[in-house]
Amino acid sequence: MRLVWNYQSDVAVLPAAVVDSVKNATKKDLCILLALAAEPLCAVDLAAAARAVAARLSMQENEVENALAFWRGTGVLMPDEGDAAPQAPAAVAQKAERPARIVADRGVPSYSTEELTALLTRRRELTALIDDCQRTFGKIFNAAEVGIIAGLVDYLGLDGEYILLLLAHCVHMEKKSLRYMEKMALTLHDEGVTAIDELQERLRRIEIMAESTGKIRALFGIASRALTTKEKSMIEKWVCSMCYGHDVLKKAYEITVDSIGKASIPYANTILERWYAEGYRTLDDVERAIAEYKRKKAANGSSFDVDDFFEAALKRTYGE
User: Fold this and answer.
1) What is the 3-state secondary structure (H, E, C) of the chain?
2) Given this model, what pLDDT does residue 25 score?
3) Which end of the chain has the lower number of beta carbons within 10 A, N or C?
4) pTM higher than 0.90, yes or no?
């Protein structure tokens, strides 16, 4: 038998370091910490959160303050000195609809403490989403970070599944910054990538390219220079659209060097496009086709030539 967490509609997130301080905490300290972790106002207005926790636990506010002092002393809680409460521009309150296009560098609109508190109260689903995002990132968000998640939902109209998928991608790519994720979300929005299936395909391509590009650069001897736009497009086609493995790319590279005496991405691209058009998807497919062509050439008393092989493949492909 195993146990699973029953999260229902609300989640409380705590640092793992809490375990190290439990032995010195009182029952009241623990109750207040748990209630505080489940209170969305904690990331927006500590005073308001303390009042809410005191009311929820039927305690005095000074009891909550004493518990907070204990947890600050353990290092589990710490003051957020990096972000002042953001002020919302007048345009936010006046906007009638979501924008068709946003400049990514500007970010989502900022929310004042009052606006963010009202938004979290009005849209209770945001609380669970923020908790899910915190678990994905492995950290408790400050007010500015809560505002980013809220803005992506309230301003851009992105749903929770989209945001969590994007967050998981950023973590996978070791880009654990909510500002990075915000900029990426805005760029995708401007490019029209707003549906889950579209996002999944875009992230799949990004991750495959990140994994494959370094290997391909090494294979073709491209050290420090940047890839051209045309080269990037060819490589993306190889690994994302044609879905060729590195073994097939290596074979195309070897044939390229054997044929023209140097590494060339455009020449290798010609080879790979011919293979793909002919239906060769794996290294075994390619090697079987080459072996069969060699056998037929030998039966006719001719020597095997790579260019002849490609020309024959093109004729079969286009019916010439």
Assistant:
1) CCCCCCCCCCCCCCCCCHHHHHHHCCHHHHHHHHHHHCCHHHHCCHHHHHHHHHHHHCCCHHHHHHHHHHHHHHCCCCCCCCCCCCCCCHHHHHCCCCCCCCCHHHCCCCCCHHHHHHHHHHCCHHHHHHHHHHHHHCCCCCHHHHHHHHHHHHCCCCCHHHHHHHHHHHHHCCCCCHHHHHHHHHHHHHCCCCCHHHHHHHHHHHHHHHHHHHHHHHHCCCCCCCCCHHHHHHHHHHHHHCCCCHHHHHHHHHHHHHHHCCCCHHHHHHHHHHHHHHCCCCHHHHHHHHHHHHHHHHHCCCCCCHHHHHHHHHHHHHCC
2) 80
3) N
4) no
Res 303: pLDDT: 62
Cβ contacts of residue 199 below 8 Å, gap of 6+?
162, 165, 166, 188, 193
Per the listing, tokens 């990004």 go with 206
Tell me the average confidence (pLDDT) per consecutive run of 10 residues in the chain, 320 residues long. 62 77 82 80 70 84 80 74 43 41 63 87 88 90 91 90 94 90 92 92 92 93 90 95 94 90 93 91 91 80 62 50
Q: What residues does each domain of the chain span?
A: 18-74, 107-192, 203-318
* Per-residue burial over 36-63, b = 16 or more CB atoms within 10 Å of its CB, e = otherwise: bbbbbbbbbbbeebbebbbeebebeeeb
Name the token pair of 212: 């494959």
Can you give the pLDDT at residue 291? 86
Q: What are phi and psi of 18, to 5 degrees?
A: -55, -35
